[in-house]
Amino acid sequence: MSSEACGLYDDRHQRKKGAKMSFTKRWIEEDGPKVQAPASHKLDLHENALDSFNEALTRFKEGTGGNVKAYKFAIQHLSHSIELLFKSHIAQMHPLLIYKNPFTAKPLDREMTIGLWDAVQFLKNSGDPIGKDFEADLLWLKKLRNEIEHSRFDMDVATVRATMGRLVEAIKDFHDHFDDDLSAFVTKGNLPLFEELSDEYRRSLGEARAKAAASTQDGETHDCEFCGERDTGARIDGEVKCQYCGESNYTVDCLRCGADELVSDATLWNDEDGRSDYLCSSCYAHYQSLVAAD
Ligand SMILES: [Zn+2]
Ligand SMILES: [Zn+2]
Asked: pTM (2 decimals)?
């Protein structure tokens, strides 16, 4: 078969000749500069994803600082950033994959792009599914976002903080796995919060401190004598309850002298028959000196 007779060959031959030119450049030259080039679109997606991610962190920080309404914007920005991040990941496989109909003859800038759940399904189909917990948190985020849009938003700050924290960690894992270290794209001012949220221990501690501040009845938070964490205790009905380890500090009467002392300072002397007897620290010191003298 001669080359003239085969249109397909011609087409391929032409492509090969043009191959030195980048895909983006060819795209612009063939369709005019008004059509957005898919390769640069990919870059925009990633940049916009990270802009939204940083904006979400900024708003989250405002929420932590007492402006509870800011969490609402944090949720919207986080949700947007995840969608863009997934799309930018998919665009790396092929720029046209972000369109609902990549086979259209219409200009692509008029074509709808895929949504978050298309992206999630694509990742599943391509053998790179996101984790079950991540997906469950995304569903929660979607529901909350809908509620915000329809002004039916009922804020449960503790849940919002906890779930957003898990999502930030999941986004970090996703980004670190497929791209670069996400922390490199986080603004300096947001870095401490980002590090807190993406680390489970620090995140739980942050949640406990926020919970303590919100529930304490004496206007201040207290250090925990049991786990040693700072500002995790809330005074509730005469007890200081740690929102991190769950232990409570309250006063007990000394078995020997009757003085009251914090349970964390007293020594448990006897806990038989369903009752607990304590010795205060000075009575216990006295007992120890007697034992030492023996
Ligand atoms: Zn504690
Ligand atoms: Zn005593």
From this structure: 0.65
